Amino acid sequence: MDDWQNVVKWSIAAHLLLVGGGLLMLVLVAGMLRQRRNPATSAAWLMFMLVLPYIGVPLYLLFGTRKLAGLKQRKAHLFMADSAPREPPSDPVQRYLQSMHVPPPVAADAIRFHAGAGEARRALLDVLHGAHQSLDVCVFILANDAFGREVLAILSERARDGVQVRLLLDGFGSFLLPKWRLRALLQAGGRVAWFIPVLHRPWRGRTNMRNHRKLAIADGRWVWAGGRNIAADYLDAEANTHWHDLSFDLQGAAVLHYWRLFDADWRFAAHEEAPAPVSSSVSSATGSHVQLIPSGPDMVGDVLHELLVMLVAGARERIQMVSPYYVPGEVLQTVLAVAARRGIAVDLILPANSNHWLADLARNRYLRQLVEAGASVWLFPDAMLHAKAVVIDGRYALAGSANLDLRSLFLNFELMTLFYTPTDIGRLSHSIEALRGKAVLWKPRRPGVVRETLEGLVLLTAYQL
């Protein structure tokens, strides 16, 4: 009798599990069909969940969604907080960005593009030491190396001095940082938040959504930004001369927009609602103007990707691009190839060998298509080129944290800065040209069957590279 009762219990449990799994599948499929996404991607997920439900459903819960509805509403409201209703601008780029609730261009002072790791390091330390009231730092990787520990020591010291210190770390990028390294900062009164930890509650965001933004903001008046993480590879010229990156710092009214973006990310990660105080900053109107271009799961659309497509499609003379990785997706790839075919000079600069060999393998198919269309691909030898910048016709320039790959364009929380002033655009263009002068023109070779097959296999997981 006991055996029969156990069989009945197991049968009921299995039946309930089957029914529950079926209902969960229906909910997930209904949610998937409501999302704006590639039909082929939706079909692949659907087939995966049907054929291998015990593997496909958990993986979809971890990786399948790339937009967070609650954050979208908060971010749109945040960006429009200081903006009265505006007339549609005549510039189509501005008209598009306004429609996506991106804050308008704003004056900036004392813009400095850092010539190398040494200058970027000094600028970062100046910002950290220059804070009197508040110090907000957001970074993807805070390394457990000599420079990472130096920065933590400075943050702890500033917190003991009475400065309000907030440190926002990405849960995956800084996963290897021992938590006890943060103890001194916390004991000094500083605060630390982890952006979507690897192990977290599902409703706090998907594990594959990473905050890739890099910011250090002093008193809401001075910001350090770009593509550099806080690690010796990126910021210690003496320890490592084999990394090239791009960062900048600026002051003025524009800093308030950077601070608002940081504060929205902080409130999401720290589960806070009330914003912290920040001092206002008045620009001395030097003539420079910048515009923040945030992108990621917290935006209504794919702002950065759509902006790049728009700028490339409207290019008249030249497109300069530098990125550590290149897996752009079909739309951006197509407009770049079309631009090259219609006579636009397209120069793309990449590292000969990046720090992710799978990304290097995945890029080759796209690069061959670009070269065939008439673009020039340049490979930077003997160094990891980590800079991210785009210049179009000397009229628009973008620099920041986003790579030219599917993860940055569609999954990560990223931040690029759009520069409008000819002097700033000229500096970025000159920097890219200097990199091109050290690079070697890439000449593709016809791949074999095995290599083409491997490229195709890697591209199936391109979003996760």
Describe this structure in words.
With about 475 residues, the chain is α/β, with parallel strands linked by helices. It has 3 domains: about 60 residues, no CATH class; about 180 residues, Endonuclease, Chain A, CATH 3.30.870; about 160 residues, Endonuclease Chain A (Endonuclease, Chain A, 2-Layer Sandwich), CATH 3.30.870. It is about 45% helix and about 20% strand. It contains 16 helices and 19 strands. The protein has a 15-stranded mixed β-sheet with strand order 4-3-2-5-6-8-1-9-18-16-15-10-12-13-19, with helices on both faces. A hairpin with a 3-residue loop joins β5 and β6. The longest helix is centred in the N-terminal third of the chain and has 33 residues. The protein is globular and about 60 Å long. The model has no long low-confidence stretch (mean pLDDT about 85).
SSE arrangement:
Elements: H1 2-34, H2 39-51, H3 53-63, H4 69-79, H5 92-99, E1 106-113, H6 117-130, E2 134-139, H7 146-160, E3 164-170, H8 183-187, E4 191-195, E5 215-218, E6 222-226, H9 232-235, E7 243-244, E8 247-251, H10 255-270, E9 288-295, H11 303-313, E10 318-322, E11 326-327, H12 330-341, E12 345-351, H13 357-373, E13 376-380, E14 384-385, E15 389-392, E16 396-400, E17 404-405, H14 406-411, E18 414-419, H15 422-438, E19 440-441, H16 449-459
Parallel strand pairs: 2-3, 3-4, 7-14, 10-12, 11-17, 12-13
Antiparallel strand pairs: 1-8, 1-9, 2-5, 5-6, 6-8, 9-18, 10-15, 13-19, 15-16, 16-18
